[in-house]
Amino acid sequence: MTALFFGEAMTEIKLIIFDLDGTLVDSLDDLTDATNHMLALAGRPALTREGVRQLVGQGARRLVERALINGTEDEVEQGINAFLTYNGAHLADRSHPYPGVRETLDALQGRGLPLALISNKNVALCRGLLKVLGLDGYFAAVLGADSLPFRKPSPEPLFKLLRDFSTSPTTAIMVGDSVNDVAAGRGAGVVTVGCTYGYGDLAELRDADYRIDELPQLLKLPFFN
Question: Which residues are part of the catalytic machinery?
């Protein structure tokens, strides 16, 4: 039995929730290509990989809005369509799981732990990326930006999974690379694990309960031992 320790209490883990981009998969090169395709159509200069890294994490609309500085409403809508169309056609041209992701997911499944995923990427793109990379079989539930009226940093997507899996916050873990993941997890009252190797700055993870430098380190945290 895998257990969490809260003071003197010991509770069985019943759910592990992961973010996708920047946590399980390094998709930044494909996101950069989609962003620069959109910018080129709008007659805007291209961004560097680092420039795009600073825009990701809050969904496609927010990325496009921030990339199209002072863009009109029409420009933003056209930009979102261009970005999503290109990204959908080039989901994993250069994307790949981070080192140790498959092995870690295998180990968690081997312990009988249900795994779920919450992303601010549209759910169809989440499922498509997972399928192309052969990761779709690991997750009992996948929620994207368009699955609910709310998205991270709102805790509502986590509350939905807690209800769906009939578990309490004290039996769940949220693993992600950004302030949105940490804020959503803390808002839902679950244990938070910040991934320092992802797209978020280290300062964004300062409120996480734990921080790891590679996903396999998740298995070495106290509640798995």
Answer: 19
